[in-house]
Amino acid sequence: MIVAGNWKMNLGLEDAVSLAADVVRATADNAGDVTVVVCPPAIWLDAVSERVSKSRVALGSQIVLVESSVAFTGEHSVGMLVDVGVSYVIVGHSERRQLFRESSAFGAEKVIAAQNARLVPIVCVGETLEERDAGDAVSTVLDQLAMSLEGTGPSFVVAYEPVWAIGTGRTASPDQAQQMHAAIRSQLASNGHGGVPVLYGGSVKPANAAALFAQRDFDGALVGCASLTADAFAAFVSAAGAAS
Ligand code: PGA
Fold first, then answer.
1. According to the model, what pLDDT value does residue 64 have?
2. Is the minimum distance from the CB of 209 to ligand 1 under 6 angstroms?
3. How far is the CA of 8 from the centre of ligand 1 (A)?
4. Is the CB of 172 under 6 A from ligand 1?
5. What is the pLDDT, as a whole number, of residue 92?
6. Which residues belong to the active site?
7. Which of 1, 18, 108, 178 could be disulfide-bonded to 240 (CB atoms 3.0-4.6 Å)?
8. CB of 232 closer than 6 angstroms to any ligand 1 atom
9. Phi then psi for 76, rounded to 5 degrees?
10. What is the CATH number of the domain that holds 16?
11. CB distance 201 to 161 below 8 Å
C-alpha cells in the first residue's frame, strides 16, 4: 500500500516544513508496511526534504521535466529532483492536463526521464464527468494509460483520479472505483505490469478510506486536500495498513 499526499500549491514555507515534521511524527508508529510519500510544492522540496530525511516518509515532486541542464525557463530537471532527495514524481495529473495542456505523450516522456533517474513516476489517469456520462470512462482511462506508458519501463505507480472527483468532495463509490481499478489492472497485466500498484485519488477522506482500501484492486491513495492535516493523513496511513 502507498499513501501519497499531493499538497498542490498550498502552504507557505513555515507551514510546509511544520506539516512535514507532523507527518513524520504522526506516521512513525502506524505506517507498518505502508509507503508514505509527501509531495510539496517544488519550491519547498529542499526544506521538506530535510524534515523527512532519516524518516520513513518519502519525498515526491509534483513537477518534473524531461531534460537535464537545458535552457527551459521555469522548469525542474530530474537531476535537480534527485539532488534534493526526491524519489517519486506525479505525472499527468488532470490539473496539468487541463490547465497546462500536458498530453499523455508528454507524460510518457516524463515517465521515461523519471525512470532513467530511478525516480518512481505516479502516473495519473482519469475521465471527466462528460466522458463518464457518455459511457466512455473505461476507454478514456485505458487510452490515457496506454499513451502515458508508451515506451516506458516497468517501475511506476498508477493513480486513478476521476476528474469529477478531484477537489469536489464527490468521491467515486467503492464499486465505481473498483471497476476502473480492475480494468486498469487487467490492461497492466496484459502488458506484463501486473504487480504495479494502482492508487485512487479524488476527494478521499479518512471517513471513506477504509471502504475504498477494502476493494480488491486498491493499493493505496493519492490524497489532495486531506493530506494538508497530519492527523487526517495519518488516518489514511492507518487505514491502508489495516487493509494490507
Ligand atoms: P483531492 O485531490 O483529494 O483534493 O480531491 C486529489 C488529487 O488531485 O490528487
1. 87
2. no
3. 9
4. no
5. 97
6. 93, 161
7. 1
8. no
9. -130, 135
10. 3.20.20.70
11. yes
d(CA 118, CA 88): 9
Question: Do the Cβ atoms of 142 and 109 come closer than 8 Å?
Answer: no
Exposed/middle/buried for residue 26 (C-beta within 10 Å: 0-12, 13-18, 19+): buried
Residue located nearest, by CA, to atom 1 of ligand 1: 224
pLDDT in tens, 18-40: 999 999 999 998 888 999 999 99
Radius of gyration, alpha carbons of the chain = 17
Q: Does the global pTM surpass 0.90?
A: yes
Res. 216 pLDDT band, cuts 50 70 90:
very high
Give distance in angstroms: CA of 69 to centre of ligand 1.
31
Of ligand 1's listed atoms, the one at least distance from the Cα of 202 is: 5
By residue range, what is the domain housing residue 37? 2-243
What is the count of structural domains for the chain?
Answer: 1
Query: Which tens digit of pLDDT belongs to each residue from 100-151?
Result: 999 999 999 999 999 999 999 999 999 999 999 999 999 999 999 999 999 9
